[in-house]
Amino acid sequence: MLKKLWGTMFLLSSIYSYGTTIYQFENGIPKNIKSINTSQLKITNEKYKDGNHSLKWNFNKNDSISILGDVGYSTFKDGGKEKARSSYSMWVYNKKSIDDKLIVQFKKNGIVKTSFPVNMNFTGWRTMWVQYDRDMTGTPEEGMDEITFIAPNTSGEILIDQVIPSVLIDPRHNARDEQVPFVNLPADDAVNAHWMALYKNYNLIKYHKDNKPLTEKEIVSIKSIENKFFNEIVKKVSVNKDIIEKKKEQLKKYKKINLEFIKRLVIYKNITSEERENIKYVPTKEFGIFLRELGYMYHSTNNIKEKNEIYSIFQDALNYMYEQGWTKGSSQGTIHHLGYQFREIYQGVFLMKTPLLKNNNLEKAREMVTWYSAMGIIYTDPNSMRGINIDILNTMLPGMLTAILLNDNINKEAQELTQFNKYLTKAITYSPGVIGGFKKDGSVFHHMQNYPAYGKGAFEGLTPIIYYLGGTPYGIKGEAYNIVKNSLLMSRIYSNKFNYLLTLTGRHPNNKFKIDDSGFKYTALGGDNGIDKELAEAYLRLTPEGKDANKFKNLGFSPEKAPNGSWTMNMGSLQLHRRGEWLAGVKGYSRYLVGNETYIKNNLFGRYMSYGTFQILQDSLEESGFVQEGWNWAHYPGTTAINLPLDKLKSNISQVDIYSGIEEMLLSDETYSGGNSLNGNGMFAMKLHEHPKYNGSHRARKSVFFFDNRAILLGSNIENNDTIHETHTTLFQNYLGKNNIIKENKIYKENTLLLDSQNNLYKIKNNEVVYSKNLQHSLDQNTGKPTKNNFELAYINHGKSPKNGTYEYAILIKGNKKSQRNFEKNSNYKVLNQDYSSHIVEDNISKMRGYAFFEKSSLQNDKFIKTIDTPSLILLSPEKDTLDISFVDPDLRLYEGIDKSQYDKNGVMKEVSIYSRNWKGNDGLPHTSTLTLKGKYKLKTGNNVKLKTVKNNTVLEITSTYGTPVKIKLIKIK
User: H-type helices in 507-661, by residue range?
Assistant: First the structure.
C-alpha cells in the first residue's frame, strides 16, 4: 500500500529534533546551486527518491558543483534531553559503477572546514548519514556556508536527490557501509552492534575451498534441513490469471515510489507539509509480504506458464529492490532494528531459490540476504563472545540460516552450517553480569534485565532452528540445548498459563505479550536423542489440542500437571510460588537491576513496578484483576509507594548519554533484593530506596514469606519527607468488569479481614486500611489519555511523611470456605522479629523459619541462628535429626564499593544509563558468608560449604555468586 509520511512521523515525532532544509528538486534547479568548469546540471524525471524529479549532473574530471547558503550545522550542546548530533544526508544514483570517489566538502568563507569521500563503485541509489563531528575529516564550524561536490577522476553522470545538509540524528544510528566505511566506527563494538555492524560482519566471512567430498549422512542432513525449513514457511494459496495480473499492477505502483525502511523516516521530522507530500513509499515489511506471497504462488501451481510469470514478477521486484539501494554493501543511512522488517523478504527469496538459480540470479539475492541478516556474525572470534544478543535470536538468526541455505554449492553450505553450529554452541551459554543472553536461573536478558517479552521473540527465532538442525551433525546439542530447554521451562513458571506477571512486562504493562508455546514443541522435536519428554509434556499442558498435540499424544506423551513449588530467579530479583493452578510472584530491584523501563510512549507511569510488587495470577491478567484502562499506576499490589497523582507520577524522560535512547531505567543504590526457596516454600526481601531523581528520602524494608497457600508480608522502617501525599502499601487492586457496581468506600482501623473479588483473604494487623469499590479514572500508559473502569482497591495508609512505618498482613490464596474460616481464626505463623535489622517468620505448620537479614546480625534468643556476617535470606526446615538450610546472599556483586560516576559532586545519586555502566558485563564476585548456628551439626550435603564446630556452635562458611540459593543438609550431632 502506498504510504505517505504523516502517520509514521507521528509515532516518531518526539524522538529527534532536526534542521530545516531539504533539497528535493521538484521546482527546478535552486538558484543557490552553481556548476563549475564543464559541469552540466538539469532536472530529470528519469529516477527520483521523492516527488518526481532529481538533479542530473554530467561531469568531467575536476568538475564540481556547489550549494551556497548556511549549511545548518550546529555544535552539540550537552545538558538537553536528547543527544542527537548534526549529520549530513543525501541520495546518489549511479548508472555505471565508477572506480573512484565523490568528495563532499563543507566550506566557510571559501575555506574547506570538513569533508568526506563517497565510494562510487555501485549502481542504483545509495544514501548516507554522516555525522559532522565524528565521521568527517577536519573540524566543522557553525556558519559554514557552502557545500561543494568534487567529481570523480573521470567523466560520468549521476543523479542527486533529497539533500539534507544538516539533520540531528542519534549518534548511535548512523551506519557505515561500502560507500562510507568510515561512518560511526564505534558502532562496531557498541551494544547495538548486531544491528549496526553490517560492514564489519560481512567482512568476517571466510570460505575455504574443501575438495573433500561430503558423506552421505551430511548430504541427507542438509537436504533434511532445507526440507524442514521449506515446509515450515511454505503455504498453499490460490493462483489464477487475475491474481497474477493484480500482482503485476501492485509492483507497478511500488516502482513509482520509494522502498523505505521505517527507522529512516526520522530524518523528515521538521520538513514542511509541502515537502512531506513528496515522500511516498512502500515499507520494507509490506514489500517483503508481497515477495513471500509470490513465493507461495510459485509453489501453489504446476502450470509452467504461471510459474514463469510469477518468477518474472518476482525478479522484477528484486531488481527494483536492488536499484532502491537494498543490496549487498548498502546500509541505507541507518539499519538499526532492520530484522523486524525483513523476515518476509528472507522467506520470499528462499521460496524462489530454484527459479533464481535456474536463471542465474541466485548469487546476488544470496549476497543481499547475507549482508542484511549479518550472517558474518557466525564467524565472530569465539574468544570475544560472552553470550548472545536476544535481537539476534529473535530477528536475525532465521535470515542467517536462509543465507546459508541459499548456497548453490553444497560444500560451501556444509561449511557454513558447521560454522553456524559452532557459533550457536558458543553463543548459547550463560552470559556474565546483566548483559544480554541466558542466565543460570532461567532468565532471558535483554536491555540489561530479565525481559520475557524479548525472551518470547528469542524463542520464536531460535527454537524453529533447533528443530530444523535437530537430528543432524549440525544440531544444537549438550549444554547449549539444555540452556535453551531450562529457560523455556522457566517461562511457564513465571507465566500462568500464558500471561507473564505484570511486573515482568517491561515497558508494555498490558495484556498483549504472552508465553511462546511453540518453542516447547520445536525444541522437543529438535533434541539429539529423540523427542524431549519434559518439553513435549509441558507443551501438551499449554496446548492440549491440535495437530501437533495429537502427534505427541500418539507417541505416548501426556500433559504435565501444573508446576507446584517455589522458584528463585535472583538475576531478576524475583521470587515465584505456585500451588494448584495459581502463581504468586514478588519482584524488586537493586543497584544492578533496573526498576522500570519507560520510553516516551511506553509505560509512562511505571516507576513503582518493582517496589516489591506482589501479584497473584490465575488464568489471564484480566481474569486475575488487571486491565490497563482505569488501572491506578500508583497502586501496584504489594508496593510501598507515595500516592502521587498521575501527573506527578509520570516519568520525566531524557536521553542521559550517547549509550542510551530517550528512556528511563532507574537503579537503586541498594544491593539487597532477592528471593530464596526451600522444599517448595520460599521468601523474598528487599531494601527499597527510591531514586533521588524523584524522592530519595523514600525508603522501606520489605519481606514476603510463602508457606504453602499462605503469604506473610512484612514492612518496616518506612519513611519519606513527602508532607503532601500519603504513603500506601497496596494490598490489592482488581478489575471488576463492565457491569454496574455498588460503590463502596470504607476505612478500617487496627486488625482487618478483607476478601477480595479474586477469592484471596487478607488479614491485616494493626494498621489503617482503606477500601474502595468505584469507577476508577486513570491515564493510558502509552498516550497519557484518560481511561476508566470499575475497580476495587485496598491499601494500608501510612500517612504523610511517615517515620519508622510498619505493616504486617497475611494472605490466604484461593482458599475454600473452610480454609478461610480456619485462616480467620488462626493464620498459623509467628513474626519473631520485624525491625531495621531483620524480619523473621516461622510457619506453625511446617515449622519452617524464614530470616530476612537486612544487616549482619547477632541473635540472642533465636532457636537456630546465633550470628550472620552478611545481609542474607535464610530458610531453615528442621526435622528430628536433620536441618535443611537454603542460603542466599542477594548481592550480585558485579562490583565492589560504589560506582562514583553515578553520584554528583554532593554525593547524591544521579540518573545514568545502565548501558553505560562499565560493570554491566562483569561476572559476579564470589563471596563467602559466615553463618553460626546454635548446636552441633555435621555436613551431609552442600556444595561450596565448609563446616566446623566451635564449642557448642556450628560455623558454616558458604560461598555463593549471583544470588544463587545454596542448599545445605545438616545432621545433628547428639
Answer: 518-525, 533-542, 547-554, 646-649
Quick one: average pLDDT of 423-441? 96
Task: Give the pLDDT confidence of 920-937 residue by residue, as tens digits.
Answer: 999 999 999 999 999 999
Does the active-site annotation cover 725?
no
Which residue in 736, 495, 759 sits closest to 627, CA to CA?
Answer: 736
What percentage of the chain's residues is helix, strand, coil (to nearest 5)?
25, 30, 45
The per-residue DSSP string of 744-801 comes to EEEEE-SSEEEE-TTSEEEEE-SS-EEEEEEEEEEE-TTT--EEEEEEEEEEEEEEES
pTM (predicted TM-score): 0.94
* Active-site hit among 336, 447, 508, 839: 447
Residue 48 designated active-site:
no
Cβ neighbourhood burial of 896 (10 Å; 0-12, 13-18, 19+)? exposed
Q: How far apart are CA 442 and CA 462, in angstroms?
A: 16
Q: What is the dihedral of CA 529, 533, 535, 537, to 10 degrees?
A: 160
One-letter amino acid at 55 equals L
Q: What single DSSP character describes residue 941?
A: E
Q: Is 838 strand, coil or helix?
A: strand
Q: Where is 460: in which H helix or E strand?
A: helix 452-469
Q: Of 701, 717, 615, 689, whose CA–CA distance to 873 is shortest?
A: 701
Nearest residue to 807 via CA among 769, 754, 849: 769
Percent of the chain with pLDDT over 90: 91
Cα(923)–Cα(431) distance, integer angstroms: 9
Amino acid present at 722: D
Cell numbers standing for residue 17: 529534533
Give the CA radius of gyration of the chain: 31
* Residue 6, CA distances (Å) to 168, 266, 338 in order: 19, 11, 21
Catalytic pick among 16, 199, 296, 454: 454
